[in-house]
Amino acid sequence: MSNVRKVSLFRNGRNQAVRIPVEFELPGDEAVMRKEGDRLIIEQPAQAKTWLDVIESFGPVTKEEWPDIADDDLLPLDEIVL
């Protein structure tokens, strides 16, 4: 399958539209389009990540990666009465 294909342009009201061949279809119902010189680039938007996806992207954390923090030189905590 070739990555170059001649496509049809047409008018849809005041907008110009392009027919996207089935082999170039993008999933979903939204895309991002930008112009770079004479090129129009259409791409699917980046999927929104959940916090779990972000945390998992850090990979495993070992105990050796955590610094040893001593609190000997800190002032004692104040007693708080509610």
What does this structure look like?
It is elongated, with a radius of gyration of 27 Å. The longest helix is centred in the middle third of the chain and has 7 residues, at 51-57. The protein has a domain at 9-65. It is mainly β. Helices cover 9% and strands 22% of the residues. Strand 3 and strand 4 (39-43) form a beta hairpin.
Please provide the ordered H/E string of secondary-structure elements.
EEEEH
Query: Order of strands across the biggest sheet?
Result: 1-2
What does the overall shape look like? elongated
| Count of runs of 4 or more consecutive helical residues | 1
* Terminal Cα span: 71 Å
The total beta strand count reads 4
Which structural class is indicated by helix and strand composition? Answer: mainly beta
Strand content: 15-25%
Approximately how much helix is present in the residues?
under 10%
**Main sheet, how many strands, which sense, barrel?**
2 strands, antiparallel
The stretches of 5 or more residues where confidence is low (pLDDT under 50) are none
What is the average of the pLDDT values?
87
Q: Report the C-alpha radius of gyration, rounded.
A: 27 Å
Oligomer: single chain
Which descriptors would you attach to this protein?
two-stranded antiparallel ribbon, 82 residues, single chain, mainly beta
Short description:
This protein has 82 residues and is mainly β.
Secondary-structure blueprint:
Blueprint: E1 9-12, E2 15-18, E3 32-36, E4 39-43, H1 51-57
Antiparallel strand pairs: 1-2, 3-4
